[in-house]
Amino acid sequence: MTTVTVSGLAKHYGSTTALAAVDLAIGVGVTGLLGPNGAGKSTLLRCLATALAADSGSVRMFGLDPAVPADRTEIRRRIGYLPQNPGLYPNFTAYDLLDYVAVLKEITDTRQRRAEVRRVLAEVELTDRAQTRVRRLSGGMRQRLGLAQALLGDPDLVILDEPTVGLDPEQRMLFRALISRLGEQRTVLLSTHQTEDVGALCERVVVMNGGRVVFEGRPRDLAGVAEGRVWLSAAPPEGSAAYWRNADGLYRTIGDAPAGAEAARPGIEDGYLMLLGRTAVEVAR
Amino acid sequence: MPPVSEQSSDADLLRAIAAGQTAALRLLHHRHAGWLRARLRRRCADPDVVDAAIQDTFVAVWKDAHRFAETTADPAAWLWTIAVRRLVSALRGPAHRWLSGPAADVPDDARTVPSAEELVLLGVEHGALGPALDRLSPELRRLIEATALDGLTVREAAQLLGIPEGTAKTRLMRARTRLRQLLA
Amino acid sequence: MNDWHIDAGLLGEYERGELDPSRAMAVEAHMQACPPCRSSIRVDFTWLTGNWSVVYDHVHAPKAGPGHRLLRRLGLPEHRIRLLTATPALRWSWLAATVTVLGLAVAAAWLLRSGAGGAVLATSFLILAPVLPVVAVSGAYGPPADPMHEITGTTPSAGPALVLWRAISVIGVAMTMAATAGVLLPGPGWFAVAWLLPALLLCTGTLALATALALPVAAATLGGLWLAGVLAASRLVHGEPFLSVVFGPTAQLGYLAAAVAAAAVLILRRRRFDLGASR
Q1: Does the pLDDT value for residue A149 go beyond 90?
Q2: Of B104, B122, B141, which one is at a domain's C-terminal end?
Q3: Which of the residues A48, A201, C93, C252 has the least number of beta carbons within 10 Å of its own beta carbon?
Q4: Which helix (H) or strand (E) holds A213?
Q5: C278 lies in some domain
Q6: Cβ-Cβ contacts under 8 Å, C278 against chain A
Q7: Could you report the predicted ipTM of this complex, rounded to two decimals?
């Protein structure tokens, strides 16, 4: 089922193009938005989160139009959003902060609100930190608190901008487990520049570069983009700028085959790098 | 303050609670709420009042855990004294008081509590006191129970049983005389 | 203690209330001293977590301060009070600064009340008082005053209603403080109220202008215009009449009319307070 449909979405900041005619359809499950800094990921997510109005193009979420005020409020009732810089009030305790956001999310009944705050705290394993003020939480805990506020009110669409930044491996595991559980029934859209996140938990991946969607499909298809273009050789390849030495002491390169090289199985990262290289050339032209 | 776990002693949990760790309060609650409930229900038939008294107890513990450090009491005995006093104050007013009682119900020491152990040493289980207690009339026995076993003052015992304080005093006196006769 | 422990049969009889009174008392006395026997009492986990959640909420839920209790007495529902009291501009630093400035002004005016200095101070209070609520409003909503504006702005409560609630809460506090200072100030009685209509105009004007500019910019613009205007008036008209020009009946009527106009603009353009609306 399609939750979000985007067509011809564009956004400019002065003379800078953040989004250039983006077309996209997103359904239930976890979708990863991959791309370098400045690719337009955050701008797209902010448009979908109703934090930003686009210049042109159209968006439909749950069949509603965020450009129409009444629809926009209805959309906001059904989304949870973790911005890249959440700016959680430092003087609030974790509990107070969630209680406050729950009020903004129209959970007006006190008893119901408390139960909901307790539920999301347990989801992100911050139950025993509820009393701690935001400024005294570690970076990873703050990020989890940010996720918790996005989950208040059990939204149908969860939009997470760089949710795994600043997490240690243990917290990253907790995050992945939580997000993949969410994705069983809801639409989760998250941005990242970590290809491992995409491989670990996304059913679909969207690659953006220069304000455009350059790939849309399954993570395995993204790896397939580099099929027959990844090589391993014993000596450093000549004439190739991008290569590195892997753990086995072999040189890995993407592109044309160097002399005496063997073809290697491509990963998601290889496909991603291939795409970025290609679009970089296109943009330059 | 080291982190607490299921294995921490009650006294360690109370110290951690005094330092503001809610995890310790949760462990203490999960460890003690069950038996407190069973014991309170024998004194009050309304399960809602019993549940509220238990909740009240742990809120009071959260606020006053630091006062435990000043006592030499056993943590379980200390908890019981708070819980039974919370039950008394819940039953006191026309409307039940809800999580708002003064901290004065928290005992500074559990001086009254060792009498429960005395009761055991006296041999409730095997000795002559058991049959003697069973032969006491229920209203007299409940007063003995409230004062000697639960550690309540005569006034609190009167409130728990819903009788005037003066009546409680005379009944307690009668109960002691009667027990002495039965044990003679 | 001794080696005697409560076995399952005895415990069952105790829990069902089937024991002789003296045996029940013995069980309880033993339980209090014996951790293993205490923990052998069966607890329904649903009951346990339900009971705990009430304790948890009580320990963690936001404590009601004096302002909170006052608003509750006024009949405001709990969630509205949460919205009002969590307004980002209502920080202790801001409250302390405002109270200090006003307190110093009143104290200085009393110390200097016989000399010309006192009159100057009272006059500057009249001129500065309307700006206080505007400064407060500038931090009420949106970037950069509210660091959490992206989360706040994408909740269903976002938009004009939230802006107004927050503005009302800061204006209310600022006006109360300024009014207290006005009453304490030496000088003609009308000094205590003369600044109210200009303050109203500046606040509604700031909000109306904020439908086109960022809130802090709008506040600075109008606050600056007011100060510049008063300064210009003091240059043009000399002596006591200056005050009656700026705060006299004609001027006050003008402020009221302008405030009404600003309110109309505000109502017409209120949708612009929404992050998701195009400007």
Answers
A1: yes
A2: B104
A3: C93
A4: strand A212-217
A5: no
A6: 53-55, 67
A7: 0.88
